[in-house]
Amino acid sequence: MRLRLLVLAALAWSASAWAQATAWGRPEEQFDVMNLLTDLGHHDIVTESFNAYGQLTTISSWKLAFPAAYTNANGSPSSLLSEAERSFTTSATLFLSVSSWKNGEAYFVPEVIAERPLSGLHGLGGAIQNFELQKTGGDTPQLYRSRLFLRHTFELGGEKIEKTSDPMQLGAHVDARRLVLTAGNFSTIDVLDRNTFTSDPRQQFLNMAFMTYAAFDFASDARGYAWGGAAELYFDAWAVRFARMSPPQLPNQLQVGLRLDQLYGDQLELEHTHSLFGRAGAVRVLGYRNRATMGRFDDAVAAWRADPSKNAAACPGFSYGSQNASAPDLCWVRGPNVKLGLGVNVEQHLTPDLGVFFRGMISDGESEVQAYTSTDRSIAFGVSGKGGAWHRPLDVAGVGFAMAWVSRPHADYLRLGGIDGFIGDGGLKQAAETVFELFYSVNVLWALWLTADYQHISNPAFNADRGPVDIVGGRLHAEF
């Protein structure tokens, strides 16, 4: 009932915003509360002392029935069910920001979500169809703190550039050369691996394969957030970013470990922005190193072969619930392990409104997924942009294709009936998991968008014995 009231309130607010914006004669501007306050003379969005934004997003996905040679074979519980299913998420977020001291900022972001995943969030490797889905939650709305952090900027000179007023960003003019420090509770991808055309999943692609590298197992809790710190050094066209974040105490769980001197996720990114034929672009290279509590695939297989009583059904501790007594399981071999990955992220404007993107990453594939998806190698590319060319400047459209693979040790483990945090059909005919996604987001009112989305997924969970899968979806997104 509360979520329905939130939806109605957002619709009513959007209608009011549309009426006011039309009356003020600003047809090309996106209306928001900060612009309203500025017009009334109460808020300076060029050098802000505070701001407040919010969003409400509802996504529904309908999976059509698909062919499968087997499903959840021998007691393995992690297949995508072959019958038709519906999934949904509804989230509401409030972004609060304040300039708490000179060049210092504080951010607080409460959020509420209700969700129902496909097949209990099982059976898809790197192509989970809805970025909002979490490894915790249910039909009943849950309120939680997603972010609480401090940020300080040290000005180092160079030309002045403008930071616009946005959620989790205060409007300001800052030096092009600067050092930015962030500490607290936030998401790794709030700071690293940004991309103009495929990093805003509430306005762009829905599938997780396009939100960040599918093979980027960044440290986080089951909702995608962590405690830690980040440093960003900007020097004209160059930027270097480093973050150390808290991993979950156990893979894919909500509780995180706070001894960052012992267990942690480190990531280092180098960025260069450029102009190609007069159009802006950027290249980013990112490497990560996790030291966290994880099981290694080869170790699990070796332990089971040496002693078949160490099977999935007999796990004495934390496990993913397999009842396959003839399969290995990671629960027998978990301990502090290291996981590595390296990726490249490219974006390039073709016109002021339209651009192309590419991401590709390879992880070592030795250890289980600790926080993100089951992918060990991934690529994603596509085209996305706004509708200025057809006189719909606030509409957003895109088409993308992504591929994901698992490593040899990971595939051997799955082939023997093992499961990880997301996948495991009880068998495996190894193949690349692919997803094609097409979406169009129409701006209905100044602050309200409706999206139609189609996804075609081949070889779900890297298994050629199952699929392909077709998913149609819709999204309602409101901003204020």
Description of the structure:
With 480 residues, the chain is mostly beta strands. The protein has five helices and 18 strands. The protein has a 16-stranded antiparallel beta barrel with strand order 1-2-3-4-7-8-9-10-11-12-13-14-15-16-17-18. Strands 5-6 form a two-stranded antiparallel sheet. Strand 16 (433-445) and strand 17 (448-458) form a beta hairpin. Helix 4 (297-306) crosses helix 5. The protein is globular. The model is unreliable at 1-34 and 36-42 (pLDDT under 50).
Percent helix among the residues? Answer: 10-25%
Low-confidence stretches: 1-34, 36-42
* Percent in strands: 35-45%
| Radius of gyration computed on alpha carbons | 23 Å
N- to C-terminal distance: 21 Å
Fold topology:
Blueprint: H1 2-23, H2 33-39, E1 50-63, E2 85-101, E3 104-116, E4 142-155, E5 160-163, E6 172-175, E7 177-186, H3 188-191, E8 226-235, E9 238-245, E10 264-276, E11 279-294, H4 297-306, E12 335-349, E13 354-363, E14 377-387, E15 392-405, H5 408-415, E16 433-445, E17 448-458, E18 469-479
Antiparallel strand pairs: 1-2, 1-18, 2-3, 3-4, 4-7, 5-6, 7-8, 8-9, 9-10, 10-11, 11-12, 12-13, 13-14, 14-15, 15-16, 16-17, 17-18
Helix pairs in contact: 4-5
